[in-house]
Amino acid sequence: MLTPDAGTVEFAGRTISALDEDARSRLRLTDFGFVFQFGQLLPELTAADNVALPLLLAGASRAKARTAAYAALARLDLAGAEAKYPTELSGGQAQRVAIARALVTRPKVLFADEPTGSLDSLAAERVLTAMLDLVRADGTTVVLITHDPRTAAHADREVIVRDGGIGAVVV
User: In the structure, how many helices (H) and strands (E) does the chain have?
Assistant: First the structure.
């Protein structure tokens, strides 16, 4: 996390830039989830191992992490894909694995940067619907970055950024 040039960023009553690196790392691991445009899955890990990784890093036992990973994959209609490697998955499946990995810790905030940008329109719709259904059920706040008006239409609130400033807020 970068330090802001001006102002402060607060989360849960704490100024993030005032935290030490260990505290910021823990925050990223437990309270924030991240979905990147191209998934960023580790190619040498299976789908289940990619999803279990944040839990293992947070100190969960291998058995607990594996059980949670299988459940997270099932929530995204990926039961049966647990042992597949990223190269064995379709683009939509790989992106759903990335979403499962981001959500397995039940983060308070999910940051999603063009999570459907590399998918065809049908796969994009399925992935976005699955992701949003899960975060709404869990009460997770989503910060979704997109250039696609169809993707933005799924949001409860839209903040349009133009030339480095807020151009409009649509509720």
Answer: 6, 7
Residues 55-105 have pLDDT tens digits of 999 999 999 999 999 999 998 889 999 999 999 999 889 988 999 999 999
Q: What is the 3-state secondary structure (H, E, C) of 73-95?
A: HHHCCCCCCCCCCHHHCCHHHHH
Tell which residue, 126, 130, 121, has the closest CA to residue 149: 121
**CB burial of residue 34 (10 Å; 0-12, 13-18, 19+):** middle
Q: Which CATH number fits domain 18-170: 3.40.50.300, 3.30.300.30, 3.40.50.1000, 3.40.50.150?
A: 3.40.50.300
Q: Residue 108: pLDDT band by 50, 70, 90 thresholds? A: very high
Total-model pTM:
0.85
Cβ–Cβ under 8 Å, residues 120 and 150? no
